[in-house]
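Chapter review: from sequence to fold.
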Amino acid sequence: MQNGSTFVLMRGFPGTGKSTIARAIAAALHAPLIDRDILRQKAVNLFGNLPQVGRFSYELMFALVEEQLRLGLSVIVDTPLTYRTTYEQAKELARSFQTPMLVVHCQCPPEVQRRRLEGRKGKVSEFQITSWEEWMQWKPRFENFDDGGCVIDTSNPLDDSLAKVMRTIHQLHHQQQYSTEQKLF
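The token string follows.
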């Protein structure tokens, strides 16, 4: 479907289906999936819950992304993309490798999010939010910014969401190819 690598960055509140769609995208693209929660959990298991572990997990995540892009591979990153600085760092990395980046912004109705939060306790890491009350305490930290990405409603069937993401990736590569051809003339 495509002629190059793609950097796919997940975004969305906890419980909105980021990990589920990230796995589906990784399988469809035959690309590595880097889950920041897994990296953080492993760091805590090894070093304890030190204040630097959060930053370390992001640095490790971006080091792994950089290596995949250097190899010319697509890569999918599963993170809530809470902060604009993380988005800007990802954008700069994509730019440095001239790789199209797509933010997949996952959304769903609040009642679906709540049901998912309360049903996932301990599935990935101890850092997962597993109650609506925890989410309400955490929500103010989520920074609002325009990521220009593909918005999907994950309460729809997974195949529909995946198809929308794959069409958007195809369009990104088509635009990049067109832009490259225009520069040649």
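Two observations follow directly from the output. The chain has a mean pLDDT of 90. Residues 33 and 76 are 5 Å apart (CA to CA).
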